[in-house]
Amino acid sequence: MSHNTFGHLFRVTTWGESHGPALGCVVDGCPPGIRFTQAEIQAWMDKRKPGQSRFVTQRREDDVVKVLSGVMMDEDGETMISTGTPISMLIENTDQRSKDYGEIARRYRPGHADYTYDVKYGIRDYRGGGRSSARETAARVAAGALARKVVPGLNVRAALIQIGKHRINRDNWDWEQVGQNPFFSPDAAIVPVWEEYLDSIRKAGSSIGAVVEVVAEGVPAGLGAPIYGKLDQDIAGLLMSINAVKGVEIGDGFAAAELSGEENADEMRMGNEGKPIFLSNHAGGILGGISTGEAVVARFAIKPTSSILSERHSIDADGNNVEVRTKGRHDPCVGIRAVPIGEAMVACAVADHYLRHRAQTGRTL
């Protein structure tokens, strides 16, 4: 299997499977002199790890990240300093239950990548889905933690804004609330609604989709390139690479189709500090593929988890019609744990473009 690497200068390769002994990533191109601690990386890993509430998979993984290469330890014994060589990070798998997947070893789960992997490679890892499992995204979060260190002043945050048909009230948006509930919701009022709704989904053995919004602040103006190197193009591609993502929009996205030219155009005025001020941000901080200096805003839609307890019509590897029911521990709404994953992918895209801009122009922004 190829295509396990993304990025141009800030290059990330992930490796490992859901039920293997470990997984991890190699970050190549991280500039020398980046200072970070294991605790800083771990904080983002802890945000994503499973088993933290009844609304996510009950697989218990500590997701402790180990930095294996590419750093030197500072005199304080805690701070690592990047050397400019590849940084390898490892996360051990400790709570696999491969026997739960024995019944689907030759049966394809509807809505899952089982069939497409088998038809492409002639073999598939049915134990939790192998590389097609969202378990692989733990390594992306580790890489994203490093990416945040590359761009000075970068602040990437995300929140869950919709589960099923239940949307937040954007007038209630409060970033402080995101870390105060199990859904990463910025709207405290929607939390009890989501709790009741997901409890019913979970007890029925079913699943539901969601929408995540990512906001990157501190992105300097000038990142990205016209035509085939657009910042929003790469953000969209990386978000689409996340398991179960079926749609991405930047700024107002599809809602822009309902706006007039007067409504959609982000008007500008000169600020007191000699820099332009945008009076709105319908473009999501990107025009012509190049960042404007405003917040970069992206949203992505996540389909319902394919592994459910309800019996569904399918076929097996021998061409027989079968009924498939998936046992094991699964997220009733995978969108919840996609929040830190979306943050990581946007951080990686911005870091890559920051380094590409510096390489091309010789200037830092």
Automatic annotation (TrEMBL):
<feature type="binding site">
    <location>
        <position position="54"/>
    </location>
    <ligand>
        <name>NADP(+)</name>
    </ligand>
</feature>
<keyword id="KW-0456">Lyase</keyword>
<dbReference type="GO" id="GO:0004107">
    <property type="term" value="F:chorismate synthase activity"/>
</dbReference>
<dbReference type="InterPro" id="IPR020541">
    <property type="entry name" value="Chorismate_synthase_CS"/>
</dbReference>
<keyword id="KW-0521">NADP</keyword>
<keyword id="KW-0285">Flavoprotein</keyword>
<dbReference type="InterPro" id="IPR035904">
    <property type="entry name" value="Chorismate_synth_AroC_sf"/>
</dbReference>
<dbReference type="InterPro" id="IPR000453">
    <property type="entry name" value="Chorismate_synth"/>
</dbReference>
<feature type="binding site">
    <location>
        <begin position="131"/>
        <end position="133"/>
    </location>
    <ligand>
        <name>FMN</name>
    </ligand>
</feature>
<dbReference type="Pfam" id="PF01264">
    <property type="entry name" value="Chorismate_synt"/>
</dbReference>
<feature type="binding site">
    <location>
        <position position="288"/>
    </location>
    <ligand>
        <name>FMN</name>
    </ligand>
</feature>
<dbReference type="GO" id="GO:0005829">
    <property type="term" value="C:cytosol"/>
</dbReference>
<protein>
    <recommendedName>
        <fullName>Chorismate synthase</fullName>
        <ecNumber>4.2.3.5</ecNumber>
    </recommendedName>
</protein>
<keyword id="KW-0274">FAD</keyword>
<feature type="binding site">
    <location>
        <begin position="243"/>
        <end position="244"/>
    </location>
    <ligand>
        <name>FMN</name>
    </ligand>
</feature>
<comment type="similarity">
    <text>Belongs to the chorismate synthase family.</text>
</comment>
<keyword id="KW-0028">Amino-acid biosynthesis</keyword>
<dbReference type="GO" id="GO:0008652">
    <property type="term" value="P:amino acid biosynthetic process"/>
</dbReference>
<comment type="subunit">
    <text>Homotetramer.</text>
</comment>
<feature type="binding site">
    <location>
        <position position="329"/>
    </location>
    <ligand>
        <name>FMN</name>
    </ligand>
</feature>
<comment type="function">
    <text>This reaction introduces a second double bond into the aromatic ring system.</text>
</comment>
<feature type="binding site">
    <location>
        <position position="48"/>
    </location>
    <ligand>
        <name>NADP(+)</name>
    </ligand>
</feature>
<dbReference type="GO" id="GO:0009073">
    <property type="term" value="P:aromatic amino acid family biosynthetic process"/>
</dbReference>
<keyword id="KW-0288">FMN</keyword>
<feature type="binding site">
    <location>
        <begin position="303"/>
        <end position="307"/>
    </location>
    <ligand>
        <name>FMN</name>
    </ligand>
</feature>
<comment type="pathway">
    <text>Metabolic intermediate biosynthesis; chorismate biosynthesis; chorismate from D-erythrose 4-phosphate and phosphoenolpyruvate: step 7/7.</text>
</comment>
<dbReference type="GO" id="GO:0009423">
    <property type="term" value="P:chorismate biosynthetic process"/>
</dbReference>
<keyword id="KW-0057">Aromatic amino acid biosynthesis</keyword>
<dbReference type="GO" id="GO:0010181">
    <property type="term" value="F:FMN binding"/>
</dbReference>
